[in-house]
Amino acid sequence: MLSRRRLLSISAATLASAALPARGHGLTQWRGVALGADASITLAHPQAENIIARARAEIERLEGVFSLHQPGSALARLNAAGHLPDPPFELLECLAQCARLHAATGGAFDPTIQPLWALHARHYAGGSRSAPPDGRARAEALALTGWQRVRYDPAAIRLAPGMALTLNGIAQGYIAERVASLLRGMGLNHVLVNTGEFVALGDDPRGGPWHIGLRDGDHLLPGEIALDGGALATSAPHGISFDAAGQASHILDPVSGHPAPARWKLITVTAPQAWLADGLSTAFCLMERPAIAETLAAFPGARLAALVEGRQFSDG
Q: pLDDT tens digit string along 155-167?
């Protein structure tokens, strides 16, 4: 199953480098995969290949921390044992960011939904076409969730029995931010990093900001989003669904245990940091417009860049 970020990065393939060769106008672009999402790094530098190699090594290192599917990753080991001694700094930092988002979104952002996600995945993989998991099964999965039961400090991360975490709603933004920080430390200031979420270091060396186009499925939406520094993330609640009919969103409500409603088709957030844009765009899938506005007020510099409601596109 494709992750939502893979779908969205494919949909966003028109970004600033659309119609650009792999090397042209002084630009070099690497394209690959990070945490299951199409990824790219676009920059202009005479040592571009060496720089990209270092960035790719950082991506691979961080996948070894955050991947749900690599058995040896820090996150996979935590989920398997419920306890991780001497956790990597990056995992601790990301959990602290999760705590901020959980508090600011009234619990809509909750990485402990992994048991619930696994229930839905098993249920629909078992052949159910439309009926959701029954109430008893949801209640059992919900009993294994709850951010307040996650304990972490530099010595260890501890989960309550049966719990597991997913960081799919923030990890790609976090990785994009770390890669951008690496490149910034090397003195670069005209780079676009895409790990499923976007970070711009400065503007496009061809002149002006980077321009990122958005798609609703196969449809290119009108207008583009200009990014001149900062980050951008997009979530599509029904871009990936558990069921063949496309009704059971892969984004789950940590309170009810149900998939996200069809209120929004696509949500794009810009923010100073990619982890923040990523986490907010995820949580907003479960929130109404007044709650979105209230949450944004708690994060200076973050803004709702675009919404798709039904077939109608509206600027934030």
A: 999 999 999 999 9
Which distant-in-sequence residues (6+ apart) come within 8 Å of 225 by Cβ? 211, 212, 213, 214, 232, 268, 270, 305, 306
Radius of gyration of the chain (CA): 19
Name the strand (E) or helix (H) holding 219. Answer: strand 219-220
Is the separation of the CB atoms in 140 and 63 below 8 Å?
A: no
- 94-100-103 Cα angle (round to 5): 140
Instruction: Please tell me the distance from the alpha carbon of residue 27 to that of residue 135, in angstroms, as a whole number.
Output: 54
Output the six-digit token pair for 130: 């439309």
Neighbours of 71 (CB within 10 A): 8
CB 44 within 8 A of CB 28: yes
Would you call 154 helix, strand, or coil by DSSP? coil
Burial class (CB in 10 A: 0-12, 13-18, 19+), 261: middle
Q: Which of 172, 198, 173 is nearest to 41 (CA)?
A: 198
**Full-model pTM:** 0.88
- 24: CB partners within 8 A, 6+ apart: none
Distance CA 167, CA 73 (A): 13
Beta bridge partners of 104: none
- pLDDT-derived band of residue 38, with 50, 70 and 90 as boundaries? confident
